Structure formats: C-alpha cells, structure tokens
Amino acid sequence: MRSSVPSRKRTFHAVRATLVGLALVASGLVAITTAGASELTVEPVPSGVAAPVASVTVPAAEGPVVVAPAGLPVVAGEQYVVENDEVCSTGFAVTARSGAEGFITAGHCGRAGNAVQTAGGAELGSIAATSFPETDFGWVAMLPGFTGTGTVSQHDGTTVPVRGAAPAAVGDPVCMSGQASGWHCGEVVALDQTVQYDQGLVSGLTATSICSDAGDSGGAFISGNQAQGVVSGGVGDCATNGTTYFQPLGPVLDAYGLSLRVGS
After folding, report:
1. pTM of the full predicted structure?
2. Could you tell me the CATH number of the domain that includes residue 138?
3. Among candidate residues 108, 130, 102, the one with its CA nearest the CA of residue 12
4. Most CB within 10 Å of its CB: which of 78, 94, 172, 173?
C-alpha cells in the first residue's frame, strides 16, 4: 500500500514478514500461515494493513540539477533517492565487467532506468537492473564522479571495511546498516526463507533478529568484515523490536556479473 503525504519524502520498505509465532499476529496487523518449513505467507486481515511499501511523497525540489564533485565516496548503508522521490539505502560497492562502478540494492526500490540521486540532491547515476519479486535485488550504476569505498557505515562517523563475502551460518552474529535506523546487530535466525509479499513470493532470503525501519531497504548486512546481503523486508520496526530478512549477496553478483569491492 502507498500513501501520499505532503511535505515528506517517500521511503521504501518491503512488506513485513516473520517466522510463525511472533507476537505481531496477536496485534491484529497481519495473519501468518505456513506453507512448509521455510515458506511463509503474510496476509492482510480486515482490521489491519499489510503492504509491500510504506511510502510518502513531497513536492519536487526547485532549482538547478546538483552536480557532484569528482571522486565523491559512496559508503554502504547511506541514503540514496530514486527519481527525486523514493528513499532507499545504499548496498555494497561493486564493479561491473565493463568497469562501471556501482552498488547493489533491493529490487523493490525501483526499476531499470530510474535516475538516482544522493541525499543532497546530486545526480548519482541510474538503476542498471532489478529483479522483484521471486528475488529482491538490483544494482545502481554510478556516474564517473562517484567511487565505491568498499566500506559500511556504522552511523557514528566510522566505517567497517569489507574484506570478503563468506556466508554466515544460523546463529552467527550479523549487523545491519540502513539510512533510517542506523547500525545495529543481532544474529542469523534462518536461511533460504520464502516470503509472500503483495507482489508475489520472494525466495532465498535470510531471516535475522535485527530490526529495520522504512527506508532501510537496500541497506547492508555484514558479519564481521564479510558482506552478506541487502535489506529486503521484515516484521515490525525498531520501535517494536522487529525482525528483518535480507537478500543474500551471491545471487546478485552472479546474476549481473558484478565483482564485490573491498575496503583498504
């Protein structure tokens, strides 16, 4: 569901979903059914709301296009904007076979060809490709004035360098960086989960104990210094100690022939 609210920028976050048994069911917001050990269905109930996108809108900014200075670094977990409207979070820095630099993101954040901007309004590049539903990933090709740092923001003025992409196992610690909720940590709860969003099933997701807020979509999950994936959706929010699913990194890199950039 989308809503139009004047004077606010739109934020993207996929419909909230969770493992069977969470207290959200009792709140009357969603009904959850199981379709196997790793498949969930999230359905709206008459008294509540279940929507793939929580979004608000603002009038378009006035003035000339902002041009970024050369060499502007892009860090995972920070804000970017789609078509001067939708707000998501930057994922891990990547390099395409062509040599183009960019970053991965959630597929539901936009469509191929959409222009993207920085939080400050500078033209950042465009969405090169997306896949949603079935999977929830895509990547943004950046303009030459930007460079990926191979680091993840901890939202305290420091960053974590990315050293590789070894997948975490169930029970392993993991942290998330998103422009809305910042940096926080928990653990991997389950692998290879299938979640029902309004647009269709998304498979192969990893469930975590970490909360997220609207606008965190596309943000980075990292375990130690190993890149894990990008925020897809979840249940609840950080005010209610919610949980989050992420799209693992491997399928994104394989689908588009991308190489992960590591930090120095």
Report:
1. 0.79
2. 2.40.10.10
3. 108
4. 94
